[in-house]
Amino acid sequence: MSETVLITGANKGIGFEIARQLGQKGWTILLGARNKERGLAAVNKLQAVGVTVELVMIDLNDLETIHVAADKIANVHPELKVLVNNAGIPGDMEAEPLETKTTDLQATLDVNVTGNFELIKSFTPILQKNHGRIVNMTIPATGNRFFHPFAYCVSKSALNQMTKMFGDSFKSQHIPVEIFGAVPGGVTTDLNHHMDNRFMRSVEDGAGSVVKLILDHHNHQGKIMVRFGGLKLVKKVIVGH
Question: Coiled-coil regions in this chain (predicted)?
Fold first, then answer.
């Protein structure tokens, strides 16, 4: 039996490429998408290259879709091994902190923090039966002069802290699920308006780093894995210290 992975926001960008690369390694792909038409188009593309894939409707703005998906997968795919929390929104990437609208910050937190929190809670009972993994796609908690969108950075900082605390809790409670963050570096996608400079990576390259991390046999519980030429473990967790 092949391994099974659920990837949210996998109808495009790095999520789609992670799905393609894992699928071509024999994994069964549960492709999470909030838009049925775009999700089915992505499924068709993957099937055309021989990937075993199913569409799962998940909208991080609608927590009930997460609960419905978890119930269905628990029954149809109880073998689920990995959850990749890839779906997210950027917020207003141009606004300085004082210019950021409260509604924009709240919307970004709702998806990138609350939505992922609900996914972790809903899928941990399935994953713990399979000693599974949860991979949160993220960025370093600290911005830099090239990339510092306020709402997005705030939301990912919260996600990083949440990852650490879930990891600590899983370890102390002996819950056999490993959770960690994956930072593939700057990847050119529509989320950043296809930003392209010498610091940016292709979608294929960025996804490849994440796939290698998913397939490794090292324990990264509660850590944020950051790429500097390759994925490596940050010696100090970059949030909360």
Answer: none
